[in-house]
Amino acid sequence: MGEMEQLRKEAESLKDQINAARKAVQDTTLQEAAAGVAVVGRVQMKTRKTLRGHLAKIYAMHWATDSKLCVSASQDGKLIVWDSVTTNKVNAIPLKSSWVMTCAYAPSGNLVACGGLDNMCSIYNLKGKDGNVKVMRELAAHTGYLSCCRFISDTEIITSSGDCTCILWDIETGTQKTVYAGHQGDCMSLAVSPDFNFFISGACDFTSKLWDIREGTCRQTFPGHESDVNAIGFFPNGNAVITGSDDTTCKLFDLRADQELITYQDSSVMCGVTSLAPSLSGRLILAGYDDFNVNIWDALKAERVGVLAGHDNRVSCIGVSADGMACCTGSWDSFLKIWN
Amino acid sequence: MAEAPQQQDQQQQQEEEEEQLQGSAETTEPDEGSEGSEEPDEVVKPARPLLSVRSMSTVDPDDDYPNMIVYRKIEDIVTRIQDETEGIPIRTVKSFMTKIHSVVTGADIVQWLLKNLDIEDPAEAMHIGSLIAAQGYVFPISDHILCLKDDGTLYRFQAPYFWPSNCWEPENTDYAIYLCKRTMQNKTRLELADYEAENLARLQRAFARKWEFIYMQAEAQVKIDRKKDKTERKILDSQERAFWDVHRPVPGCVNTTEMDIRKCRRMKNPHRVKKSVYGLVEDGSQAQSPVHSSSQHCRKGTKEDVQKEILFLSTQLDRHCLKMSKVADSLITYTEQYLDYDPFLTAPEPCNPWTSDDPTFWDLESSKEASQPRVKKWGFSLEEALKDPTGQDLFLKFLESEFSSENLRFWLEVQELKRVPQQEVAHRVEEIWAEFLAEGAPSTINLDSHSYERTSQNLKDPGRYSYEDAQDHIYKLMKSDSYPRFLRSNVYQDLLMAKKKPESEQGRRTSLEKFTRSVGKSLTGKRLTGLMQSS
């Protein structure tokens, strides 16, 4: 075992050096640097629309890029595309498997995807010739549940799975292009960078990882959470990552400083974070919790500046529209609410 | 007396739990142990432990049960609330002919939370209190619905044995025994609620074959109960009922024990034996949870793994870390730059389409004529300029005037290439080469020899990303060279400065029309005329 001992020692020494390098650049904290920034004040948002129609827990939702349409997935076995302004259902797509855990809207607006305990990512074409919405592809290769999926374009999609890997798929051929392996726990969620060159994944090994989409490599790993990382998102400028965890906190990690910048926590917040989304400027972070509420955090000062209360069960998903106008929350109470 | 939380190892925990299963008493009552089972052939453990001490959880605190961190937080609070010196005094209340032991009021709880948890907002205290109640750590003595009321309603604390952190997943057999037992005892306070009676009927049908067994278990439990002190029994009964209110809630109430199915599937301990509340052991084999094939990928520690890790860490070490101050500044600057564009922070103009049902904002955003804020945004970054179709057009026109439009056109073509159907890819790749890169091409772009080499290599196997390197290079060129010149150019500056007066006569009329339309809705005719006159 001599060699193993040596290797482990080497790894430990490298880790120490990395930590030292990180400490060396800590000439201030984000809170100190932001001390001079004007406070945001109380943020009060009201429910503007309630989208009713699902019959069971909603597990996921995603906005379309037009900021009006959105798609939601529920354990009643349906994928519903909503016109959130009129609250009309544009499409109600019945699924083969009702254990759906994630859904996504393609940037083009032509496709939606979903997946769950069936270990597959199913792609649906919304703009089919005869008007019917049909399954276009079934991407099967994961050996665990599909926890999240995000389109890069109409031809590529990235999925994360309970089998601890993420995969980049070619939708046209239905094949895997790249497998991103490295996490040591179920991957729970993923987010694509604004420039589409990178994506981040959060997992049950308490870490999040930054991946280079084309190279297939893990560029950076961010430890720090004390429990599963359930939710993840990019700060709008693409240089920082926000994570939410079962340890009741959210954290901000900077890619260029390669470390945690700040933690969003409060002694009175005693529930796991299920989902999160930054506002358009990144100044606010909206996070959904198990205690049925959404807490709004001032990203720079780490203070709670608002609460969205209105759901009767856990908030399972949240999204801010591309134009930053509205926030949509989905809950286990089977409703979606639009707030601003 | 509540003991301070102790870190105990599993062995010790198990022993103590065994002891308690023999029936130690609540410390606020006179000590009265109960005897062991009276049915020598039945393997029934008289499970009526009463503890005011911290949960003797057999779950290793390091176990990755997802809610454990939350439970520990709540348990800290609940332990503090019951503390003799710092907590709420737990009283006995006189009522009609009886005394109600070991209670506090809802208002007491809310007040304590407000004072001791550093909370300013009473609504916040209610929220936390409701959370604690919903998980069953504190319960109303005369209601099945687990919510907290800020008034004189009486509440009792749950015994640590029943705490959620013990990871109870009680089977229906336990629930059946419980309901059955309740019907055997002739007490009005133990009468079944309607939904419980329905549940019992359903369970009787489901367990038709084992009902005799269940009935006997229930009888055994009743015998054990009878031996206890009357007061102690009342308290235990209420705690037991609260336990079932959590795990079999009133229809319509949220079941707080529901777990995200993604987490359910993860069982680090496949041999975890499902515990029975009443100490039942399934006839025959031990009730084992099914062994989930947890992912094979998640093993640690082979030599290859460590070597990979070393490689990864070395690359990380080589990477240069930016200073926190720099990074913080860039984040702050970004948020400040976009502050005016964030509808959650700055009211959108002319009005918020979600609150006013007026889509003007969206119309303005998508119109070919860019509003001044849009024009201003193009100056934030090349990304923003290119994101906006109008901005992209203007930039292209500017480049044409400088005879360098081939760069942007190349970039746009390559973007398009990433989206076309697979069968067109090869053709497009060729077209782009012919137009921009071949010798004597009509729109040669300025590529350095290195990128040119790599691109030629990529084209041996043409694909969507063959021009990735070239595209990156051209983008950087535009960003550092043409884009700053564009921002300084007359064509951009004129547009940017035209905020005081709209671009054209027609523009002015339309925007004024829209403005008055939206304002007119809330103003009377007189005031409207007044406005028109003053503009």
From TrEMBL, chain A:
Residue ranges annotated as coiled coil are 1-31
- Which PROSITE patterns does the UniProt record give? WD_REPEATS_1, WD_REPEATS_2, WD_REPEATS_REGION
WD repeats span 51-92, 139-179, 180-221, 222-263, 308-340
Question: Which InterPro entries does its entry note?
Answer: G-protein_beta_1-5, WD40/YVTN_repeat-like_dom_sf, WD40_G-protein_beta-like, WD40_PAC1, WD40_repeat_CS, WD40_repeat_dom_sf, WD40_rpt
Keyword match Repeat: yes
Q: Where are the transmembrane segments?
A: none
Q: A single Pfam family, by name? A: WD40_Gbeta
Q: Name one GO biological process term.
A: signal transduction
Q: Does the keyword Repeat apply?
A: yes
Q: Which SMART domains match?
A: WD40 (SM00320)
Q: Out of the domains of life, which is the source?
A: Eukaryota
> Which residues, if any, are the signal sequence?
none
Record keywords, A-Z: Coiled coil, Repeat, Transducer, WD repeat
Q: Which family does it belong to?
A: Belongs to the WD repeat G protein beta family.
Protein's name in the database: Guanine nucleotide-binding protein G(I)/G(S)/G(T) subunit beta-3-like
Q: Which organism is it from?
A: Austrofundulus limnaeus
TrEMBL record, chain B:
Molecular function via GO:
GTPase activator activity
Where would I find the RGS domain in this sequence?
381-496
Q: Which InterPro entries match?
A: DEP_dom, G-protein_gamma-like_dom, GGL_sf, RGS, RGS6/7/9/11, RGS6/7/9/11_DHEX_sf, RGS_DHEX, RGS_sf
Which GO biological-process labels does this protein carry? G protein-coupled receptor signaling pathway; intracellular signal transduction; negative regulation of signal transduction; regulation of G protein-coupled receptor signaling pathway
Q: Locate the compositionally biased regions of type Acidic residues.
A: 28-41
PROSITE patterns per the UniProt record, alphabetical: DEP, RGS
The UniProt keywords, alphabetically, are: Signal transduction inhibitor
Extract the CDD domains matched here: DEP_RGS7-like, GGL
Q: Which Pfam families match?
A: DEP, G-gamma, RGS, RGS_DHEX
**SUPFAM superfamilies given for it?**
Regulator of G-protein signaling, RGS (SSF48097), Transducin (heterotrimeric G protein), gamma chain (SSF48670), Winged helix' DNA-binding domain (SSF46785)
Task: Give the GO cellular component terms, alphabetically.
Answer: cytoplasm; neuron projection
* Start and end residues of each DEP domain: 84-159
Task: Show the segment(s) annotated as Disordered.
Answer: 1-58
Q: Which domain of life is it from?
A: Eukaryota
Q: Where is the composition biased (Low complexity)?
A: 1-13
TM region(s), chain numbering: none
Q: What is this protein called?
A: Regulator of G-protein signaling 6
